[in-house]
Structures are given as C-alpha cells and as structure tokens.
Write a structure and sequence with these properties.
By secondary structure, the chain is of the alpha+beta class. The chain has helices spanning 2-12, 49-62, 113-122, 139-145, 152-155, 188-192, 226-238, 251-260, 279-291, 303-314, 316-322, 339-351, 379-398, 417-420, 423-436; strands at 18-20, 42-45, 66-69, 86-89, 96-99, 104-108, 125-126, 162-168, 174-176, 201-208, 210-211, 217-223, 245-250, 271-277, 294-300, 326-333, 356-361, 367-374. The chain contains 15 helices and 18 strands. It binds flavin-adenine dinucleotide (FAD).
C-alpha cells in the first residue's frame, strides 16, 4: 500500500532524490550516535527544497510523522525515526558558497561543518563553531541542536553565527528569517536554532564568518587529582583568561583514549587539561596549573607538532564508547565557578557504584560530558545507570546548571525536562510547538514527553 503512495511521491521529486524502503544497506539510518533505534516507513533523500515541500505535503496527506536527519551524529536521539516516521535525509543538499565581501557563507543544510571551516580558510576567513564531530556533522544538524565545540569558549556557539535561515513549514510553505528577509518582526532565527526538527525543516543557512585567526600554543597539563584540574579551569576563567580551547578529561576518560591510541604524556594522570592559548596567556596558565599542583606540563607552540596531543581529545568519544556494551552520555553544564564541585561529584559517584563513570568536556564553557558505562545491557545495570543519571542531573540543577550544554533534549533527556523548567515555561514552549507543529507532523515525541 505504502509502495504505491511512494511511487506517486517519487514522480513529484527531483531527478536525484531517492526513496528507499529496503533498509538492508541503510542500517545506520535506524539510529544516531545514541543507543536509541527506530524503523522508518521509508527513507527519502531530498535534493532540493521543493523535494522537501513535496515530502511534507505527502506526510500530511497520509498522516506519517516526519523526522529530518543530517549526518546522524546526534547524541540525544533527535534524528531517530520513531512510530513509523518517514526519515527525510538532507545530506545530499550540500551546496556552499562564500561571499568574501560580506564575509557570509551561504550553506544548504547538508553541508558538512568541516567543509565550511576548510572553504572559509581558503579565502582567509574563519567559521569558529567546531563540534568534535565536525568532520561528519551537517550544518543543519548543528543549527537544529545549537551545537557547541572546542573553540566555542572563545568564539561562541553555532547560534552566534547564524544570520538567516530558510525553512519549510509543516504545511509545505517556504519561509525565511534574518538576512534572507530583512524586515522587522519576530526573531524566528532564535526560535529555530536548537528546535531539533520540531518546528520547521531547515533548508538553507547564512553564516557569519570572521577573519582567519592565528593558531595558539597547545598546552597539555596533567594532575594527580581530577579536582585539581577542574580548579585550574575555574582559576583560569576567574583570572579573566579566555583560552581558544580549554578541554578537561578525567583519568579514566584519558585511559580510554590511551588504550585506543597510545599517548605517553597521559600515563598516571587523574585529570588532564588540553588548552590552546594565545601566547600572551600561556605563562599565567602554567603558573595557575602549578598553584594547583600539576604533575606534568607540555607546551607546544608549533601547531604541526601539537597534532599528536589533540589526538587524545579527538579519539575520546569513540574510545569511551568502545569500552562498554552500553554507554550513555549526559552533557551537563554548570557555571564555571561550580565546575570543580561537579567534577568532584562525578568522581565520588564513580567510587560508589559498580558502573564505570568517567567524564570529559569543553570545560572552559562549564560543559562536562559524563559517561555511564555498563558491561551488559541487563535490567540491573540499566536501572543503575538511570539512578546515577538522576543523581547527576539533580546535582547539576542544584549548582545552577543545565541538563544539556550542547547535545539537545531529543528522546534521551525529555523525561528530565521538568527538572530544569517550571511548568509555566514548559507550557509556553509546548504552545510555540503547537503553532508550528499543529498536526504533530514534525519529529513528534522529541523534546516533550507525550503526556507532558
Ligand atoms: C564523536 C562525537 C562528537 C561530538 N561532539 C560534539 C560537540 O563537541 N559539540 C556538540 O554540540 N555536539 C557534539 N556531538 C553531537 C552532534 O554531532 C551534534 O549534535 C551535531 O550538531 C548533529 O549534527 P547531525 O548533522 O549529525 O544531526 P543529526 O544527528 O542528523 O540530527 C540532529 C537533530 O537535528 C535535526 N535536524 C537535522 N537536520 C535538520 C534540518 N535540516 N532541519 C531541522 N532539523 C534538522 C534532527 O531532526 C535531529 O533532531 C558529537 C557527536 C559525536 C558522535
């Protein structure tokens, strides 16, 4: 039955658009980077914004939910097709042009983040937001999640670079915001950034570029206590220093990375900071680390040689994932002064559980990715993870932090949303969703619990 409907749809799509119903060679489309999975009714690869409009109208007419997928690197389950959704892949919409006069990149939603960074560098410009997944993630996915990244401590997150958005609404209309539509009125840009595919389908994004920056000095600092590393993070920021990158890894996360690919400097460290700093700040950073009893410092001004050091960070997510049958990653963030308290709390949690719990993150922004690892997917271990996650989230909120520093809510965190937002605010968010998504067509069941 669906086949005949899809055949009809195929006729209205552009030549290179594709509809897949045999998923045997498309298993990766059943999940993102979480443990969530779902089977779609069909996968549709769009090539143009008109394709998207046709797919939306098709879903409306035949009552299919619609989930958009960029690269599927999401860490909150947002791109996982649930309830027989049509999975709309936008990865083939990858046209990019850069206007060097105005320093604006015009990207279709499926352009890979790294492509924007690389193409901008070729014309002496710079696109700073660099999620660790930047070699795979799409710019549309970054906007839909308001992605952060390593350099965001200095330069800001994706939101700070979005000048305009073109998008398809639930009724198949094309709308534009920001510089695509220079008129007064509501700031839809802000609304659509971080909306996780629940308000509109983004087709195009205009991005602010800045002048190319000089590479800073890389500093790797090891500590015998994770809390000393975390205290150094707070001290660096308190001293008014804003490094280009300020990453934290606890000892166990570092061990995972070291097992994945050996880096000698990491041996015996319980806490590590990986920093890219402007030359003028490096001595002060070193002194602050010494004040907190660091045990090892390596400074590498030559960026080509620093690459080995950055491997430890780049390998982390995959390395940690490989260490366990189940890995749940929570991406909490707290005010920077509370970062040492959070790190100490995670270390204490790890001591008092049979699970393996480790952490790393964009510490300069107060972000901490806490990983809960289990050897089996048994009921006992799953429940133990759940129990520890609730403890972590409660502590985060108590410290004035947030449940998601950058990965979004999606499926993974929706049941905890009430911990962060009061009921009036949650209600207001749902009302906005009801305006743009009145027929619950766009990514239903993401962000909000159905009964909330
Ligand atoms: C190894 C690794 C490292 C990571 N590091 C970081 C990091 O440093 N910082 C960070 O913020 N995140 C990080 N992430 C998470 C993830 O990469 C980001 O959330 C990224 O922005 C997702 O992009 P994507 O193209 O893969 O989106 P997807 O996973 O495909 O989708 C994510 C969400 O966006 C929606 N979406 C996608 N395209 C559109 C569109 N065109 N219109 C409307 N909605 C859309 C989807 O429906 C879904 O809800 C990491 C992930 C991995 C696996």
């Amino acid at each position: 039955m669906i086949q005949s409907k899809l055949l009809e749809l195929q006729k209205s799509l552009s030549e290179n658009a594709e509809i897949i119903t045999d998923f045997s060679t498309h298993q990766e489309y059943m999940h993102d980077a979480t443990i969530e999975t779902g089977i779609p009714s069909a996968i549709i690869f769009a090539q143009t914004e008109t394709d998207i409009q046709h797919v939306v109208l098709f879903c409306r007419q035949h009552s299919f939910p619609l989930t958009v997928r960029g690269a599927g690197t999401g860490l909150s389950g947002g791109a996982v097709p649930k309830d027989g959704a049509i999975l709309l892949s936008v990865e083939r919409m990858n046209y990019l042009t850069i206007d060097t006069d105005t320093k604006i990149a015009y990207a279709q939603t499926g352009v890979i983040t790294k492509t924007i960074i690389d193409e901008a560098l070729k014309v002496n410009l710079f696109y700073p937001p660099d999620p660790a997944s930047f070699a795979e993630s799409t710019i549309g996915g970054n906007v839909a999640e308001n992605a952060g990244g390593l350099k965001c401590v200095k330069y800001g997150v994706t939101r700070d670079y979005v000048l305009g958005i073109k998008a398809v609404t639930e009724d198949g209309k094309l709308i534009s915001t920001g510089i695509y539509n220079k008129k007064p009125g509501f700031n839809f840009n802000e609304l659509f950034i971080g909306s996780e595919g629940t308000l509109v389908i983004i087709t195009d994004i205009a991005l602010k570029l800045v002048a190319k920056q000089n590479q800073g000095e890389t500093i790797l600092i090891s500590f015998s206590k994770a809390s000393d590393a975390a205290q150094t993070v707070a001290d660096i920021r308190h001293a008014g220093i804003t490094p280009i990158v300020l990453e934290f890894l606890d000892g166990d996360a570092a061990d995972c990375s070291n097992q994945y690919e050996k880096i000698d400097s990491l041996v015996n460290a319980a806490g590590i900071l990986l920093i890219e700093s402007e030359q003028k700040d490096s001595d002060e950073i070193e002194q602050l680390a010494k004040n907190n009893k660091c045990i090892f410092i390596q400074r590498e001004p030559d960026s080509s040689k620093a690459d080995t050091l950055w491997k430890v960070r780049r390998n982390l997510s995959k390395a940690v994932k490989e260490m366990a049958k189940i890995r749940i990653n929570e991406d909490v963030a707290v005010p920077i002064s509370k970062f040492p308290v959070l790190v100490a709390f995670v270390a204490e949690m790890n001591k008092n559980t049979t699970l393996r719990i480790n952490s790393f993150g964009h510490a300069g922004d107060g972000n901490l990715h806490v990983n809960f690892l289990a050897k089996t997917d048994s009921k006992e271990e799953t429940e133990a993870i759940e129990e520890q996650i609730v403890k972590l989230l409660e502590k985060t909120i108590e410290l004035g932090g947030t449940l998601s520093g950058e990965h979004g809510i999606g499926l993974a965190k929706k049941k905890y949303l009430h911990m962060e937002f009061d009921s009036a605010t949650l209600e207001a968010m749902k009302k906005v969703n009801a305006v743009f998504n009145s027929s619950s067509l766009l990514n239903p069941g993401k962000i909000f619990q159905k009964q909330q």
